[in-house]
Automatic annotation (TrEMBL):
<dbReference type="InterPro" id="IPR032805">
    <property type="entry name" value="Wax_synthase_dom"/>
</dbReference>
<feature type="transmembrane region" description="Helical">
    <location>
        <begin position="543"/>
        <end position="564"/>
    </location>
</feature>
<feature type="transmembrane region" description="Helical">
    <location>
        <begin position="511"/>
        <end position="531"/>
    </location>
</feature>
<feature type="domain" description="Wax synthase">
    <location>
        <begin position="460"/>
        <end position="546"/>
    </location>
</feature>
<feature type="transmembrane region" description="Helical">
    <location>
        <begin position="429"/>
        <end position="453"/>
    </location>
</feature>
<protein>
    <recommendedName>
        <fullName>Wax synthase domain-containing protein</fullName>
    </recommendedName>
</protein>
<keyword id="KW-0472">Membrane</keyword>
<keyword id="KW-0808">Transferase</keyword>
<keyword id="KW-0443">Lipid metabolism</keyword>
<dbReference type="InterPro" id="IPR044851">
    <property type="entry name" value="Wax_synthase"/>
</dbReference>
<keyword id="KW-1133">Transmembrane helix</keyword>
<feature type="transmembrane region" description="Helical">
    <location>
        <begin position="196"/>
        <end position="215"/>
    </location>
</feature>
<feature type="transmembrane region" description="Helical">
    <location>
        <begin position="134"/>
        <end position="156"/>
    </location>
</feature>
<feature type="transmembrane region" description="Helical">
    <location>
        <begin position="227"/>
        <end position="245"/>
    </location>
</feature>
<keyword id="KW-0812">Transmembrane</keyword>
<keyword id="KW-0012">Acyltransferase</keyword>
<feature type="transmembrane region" description="Helical">
    <location>
        <begin position="576"/>
        <end position="595"/>
    </location>
</feature>
Length: 623
């Protein structure tokens, strides 16, 4: 840890030095643009530029990092100084003078082409060629020089519309020695020596002088046997590099510094990116918590209005009209969240439960009738699945160790999402089903603890071990989402059955009521899916509940037949058939809208983020 801390501080110091150095370079280039350009070309302008040359020669000494030092030396001590020296005599590439300071700065400090279109004779690099170079960059030293120009070129091409000159043009394809630094070394030496030794030998003198400075760029000149000449040239370059160039690098362990710095820079950037992501997510979570407080504050005010105003209106249509604005508000509240969990829980508690309870309350029915004695109890009974009795029934009690096992299984399940690409579709269906069930159990247990502490009231259990269901009727009526059937029964089932019995038999009316209840449940689920995914409903979830409504009604009808009563399945077989049917039909119709919209990616991510957020706040508070 101390070593990592020192390296991080050193990197931060290097970054500060980098900023200072390039600010100095920008000021120096600005002096050249505004002052030196107004002096007539020649030795007088060159003398004005000499202080800048000296500064650019000293700038790389401010770095201890090999990369920052080498890049500053290449861009400023070499490129900028040579370009400014040419500029003193109105030579390219800074002549004619660029129209703006920003273009002058980029043309002076970077290998920038002044033309807007790339050269036609340059062979474009294919995508697989770039990909292969990224892969072998850790092994070939010369490729380090491509990373910075490519990134700088992408930036400058966006800012100025200019293309960066390539540092390398596939040197392993070289077939002859080219001329590099033509305007600064090759041409001046050739012109000067042509008077002494003649134009023919002067050309070779210019080539020799260029190599003494340092040849870094190559131009393809196809000879008769391209493959043979390429092999000879590349082998010669490697042999002479190993003889004269590489020993100094190896003696000073430059290659080790290069590799270590590359790895450290990658780790440093990764850590900074991770910190930025964590801070962004933390701010998003704080914003979501603020929205949660505002939403539930609005809900409390709305329910208080129903308690003090609507209760004074006679039960019936007029009380329903007074409650309708609150119902509309509860339909809109889930849209204030971007979090899946907050949107889903608000839609379930307010848009579904509270609205149905208030509609029943308008006709003196449901869990809000008779009217609770206090406002706090009315709010809890409206917004949560609350049992009005003070002591829960003994058969509803579940051992605490069962809930502890569910929490452990849910934690393991969250980590299994990292390996879901290796799981079969059947295992994914089981995992998604477990996720929905366990998350509902944990959220409702947290609400149960809150209500128990504040009111001393117990929550109705959200589910009663649904994996033990022996039939669809048992699953939907007595084990899964128990508060929903308790609300839908007086809100949908009983009215439909009572109206249908006027025109048909009691059995037919009962089947129609079951079918209508499942249709309403499917429509409400479609609405909740809209809140969560922000996508228009596809009808798949409604078809899921229609299918289960038909199957449940058929199951009830078949059970009443005499010959079926004599033949029954064992508990284990019936449980496997029931749970298997629910899981398979969920994978067919219920889960696809969630999977398409990435909900099973966001759900575990949000859960882990919330856990980390709570842990961070807890440790911060404790410290």
């Amino acid at each position: 840890q101390p070593t990592e801390l020192r390296r991080k501080k050193r990197m931060e110091q290097e970054l500060r030095n980098l900023i200072k150095v390039w600010i100095s370079a920008f000021i120096s280039i600005s002096y050249c643009y505004y002052i030196s350009s107004r002096i007539s070309k020649g030795f007088l302008r060159l003398l004005c530029l000499l202080p800048i040359f000296i500064i650019f020669l000293l700038i790389p000494l401010f770095f201890s990092s090999f990369h920052f030092c080498a890049i500053s030396a290449f861009f400023l001590s070499w490129l900028a100084n040579f370009k400014l020296a040419l500029f003193a005599f109105d030579q390219e590439p800074l002549s004619p003078l660029p129209s703006t300071l920003s273009r002058f700065f980029c043309f002076a400090c970077f290998p920038i082409k002044t033309n807007q279109t790339p050269s036609s004779n340059r062979i474009p690099m294919s995508k697989w060629g770039r990909a292969s170079k990224v892969i072998i960059i850790s092994f070939l030293l010369y490729l380090y020089g491509r990373v910075y120009p490519l990134s700088i070129g992408a930036l400058l091409s966006k800012l100025l519309g200019c293309e960066i000159e390539p540092v390398f043009n596939e040197p392993y394809l070289a077939t002859s020695y080219p001329s590099v630094l033509r305007p600064t070394i090759h041409i001046p030496v050739q012109q000067y020596t042509a008077r002494l030794i003649g134009p023919n030998l002067a050309f070779y003198a210019g080539v020799l002088a260029t190599f003494l400075i340092w040849v870094k760029r190559m131009r393809l000149c196809p000879p008769p046997h391209r493959a043979v000449s390429s092999l000879v040239v590349v082998v010669f370059v490697f042999v002479t590099a190993g003889w004269l160039f590489t020993p100094q690098v190896l003696r000073n362990n430059v290659h080790k510094r290069v590799i270590n710095e590359c790895l450290f820079v990658i780790d440093f950037v990764k850590s900074q990116v991770v910190n930025i992501v964590i801070e962004t997510r933390s701010r998003e979570m704080e914003q979501e918590l603020e929205n949660l407080i505002k939403v539930w504050f609005s809900a409390i005010i709305s329910v208080s209005y129903c308690y003090y105003i609507s209760t004074r209106i006679k039960a019936g249509v007029f009380r329903l009209l007074s409650v309708l604005p609150v119902c509309v508000l509860f339909l809109l509240l889930p849209l204030f969240f971007s979090s899946v969990h907050f949107s889903e829980s608000t839609a379930f508690f307010l848009t579904w439960l509270a609205n149905f309870k208030l509609i029943l309350f308008s006709f003196d029915k449901g869990p809000l009738y008779p009217l609770p004695q206090t406002l706090s109890r009315f709010i809890y009974f409206t917004c949560f699945p609350i049992k009005p009795q003070q002591s829960p029934k003994s058969h509803d009690q579940i051992p605490k160790w069962v809930f502890a096992i569910k929490v452990v299984v849910f934690g393991v399940l969250l980590r299994m999402y990292d390996y879901k690409q290796h799981l079969s579709p059947t295992m994914l269906l089981v995992m998604y089903s477990l996720h929905i069930y366990l998350e509902l159990e944990i959220v409702l247990m947290l609400v149960k603890v809150l209500v128990l502490i504040t009111l001393g009231c117990d929550l109705e259990p959200q589910s009663n071990e649904p994996y033990l269901a022996t039939s669809l009727q048992d699953f939907w009526g007595r084990r899964w989402n128990l508060m929903v059937p308790a609300i839908l029964r007086p809100a949908v089932y009983n009215p439909v059955q009572r109206i249908a019995e006027r025109t048909m038999s009691s059995d037919q009316a009962r089947f129609l009521a079951v079918f209508a209840t499942f249709i309403v449940s499917g429509a409400v689920h479609e609405l909740i899916f809209f809140y969560v995914t922000h996508e228009m409903p596809t009808g798949e979830v409604t078809w899921f509940f229609l299918l289960h409504g038909v199957c449940t009604a058929a199951e009830v009808a078949v059970k009443k037949m005499t010959f079926v009563r004599r033949w029954t399945l064992g508990p284990m077989a019936s449980r496997l058939l029931t749970v298997g049917f629910v899981v398979l039909t969920s994978g067919w119709l219920f889960f696809p809208p969630l999977i398409r919209n990435g909900m099973f990616v966001r759900l575990p991510n949000e859960a882990l983020l919330f856990i980390d957020f709570v842990k961070d706040k807890f440790f911060t508070f404790m410290s």
